[in-house]
Amino acid sequence: MSDKDVEDADDILFAHPPRVVRRWVCDCGVDYPCPDVLFARLVKATAEAGE
Asked: Tell me: the pLDDT tens digits for 1-33?
């Protein structure tokens, strides 16, 4: 491993710091909107469009 490799690694680590990612999680434990929520939204949108 050369000094250049170590220098490049330092540059990569500097350019790619960790970050906090927020995501919505449904009460059932999967990412929001879960398939049940998507289905419920579809049903409601269809019912409202039919009125």
From this structure: 899 999 999 999 999 999 998 999 999 999 999
